[in-house]
Amino acid sequence: MKLLPDSTFPLIVLMTCVELFTFITARPANITQGKKELKRLYTEMRTLLEIVSKERHGNEMQEFEQSLTSLPSLNYKTADLKTVEVSSTLGQLYSGLKSFKFHLDWIQQKQEEMGSDYSKTKKLARRIEDMSHTVFNQIGTTPSELVHPSLSPLNTAWEAYQANVEILDKLYYFCIWYVRALGDLKHKQLSAQLHDA
User: What average pLDDT does the structure give for the chain?
Assistant: First the structure.
């Protein structure tokens, strides 16, 4: 159909209005979805912290040299919370969760070989795996630096015990940090929404 010259401009205006309306109505939905996902991650991380805290408390913490340098670094400071961002925080959280899952699988394999009860380790590893899927759905891509190291064999029950205690200890502080980081992000997101309202 051939449009008359004087009908072209009104049509352009109409199409622009439709696009603008679509953008305005879609934006709150995206924000709401992001808010729900952050709240969900925050809740799941708090639950994980409670579980790890109980597991850690159940172990007899003895003094020994911690040697698992392959575990995620925990060089966080309170001041870092002022600069946390969603994308970088979720990327680091995903990498950390996958690393702990890898180490727990390593422990579980040794526990199984020794005939020990590995049900708690398996349950914890599964929860971490499920949570990593939730984080992955948020970030959409796998961090490029995600590389699992080669781990030394655990030759004795004592070595397996030491490694398990060290993993739970590091996981405990890892959870504490990300509960705080996700809580801070959730608060910032809410403040931004109230400001835009």
Answer: 79
Total number of residues shown for the chain = 197
| Beta-carbon contacts of residue 52 (< 8 Å; ≥ 6 apart) | 124, 168, 171, 172, 175
Residue 46 forms part of a structural domain: no
Integer Cα distance of 153 and 169 in angstroms: 20
Query: Cα–chain-centroid distance for residue 90?
Result: 5
d(CA 75, CA 19): 46
For the chain, how far is it from start to end, CA to CA, in angstroms? 44
18-39 confidence digits (pLDDT tens): 343 343 333 343 444 556 888 9
Chain centre distance of CA 124: 15
Residue 160 belongs to some domain of the structure:
yes
φ/ψ of 189, rounded to 5, equals -65, -40
Decide if pLDDT at 132 tops 60.
yes
Which structural domain range is residue 115 located in? 85-197
Residue 184's contacts (CB-CB under 8 Å, 6 or more residues apart) are 81, 84
State how many domains the chain has.
1
Give the pTM.
0.77
Residue 189 placed within a domain: yes
Establish if 110 belongs to a structural domain.
yes
User: Residue 86 region, left (φ>0) first, then alpha (ψ -120 to 50), else beta?
Assistant: alpha
pLDDT in tens, 141-179: 766 666 788 888 888 888 898 899 999 999 999 999 999
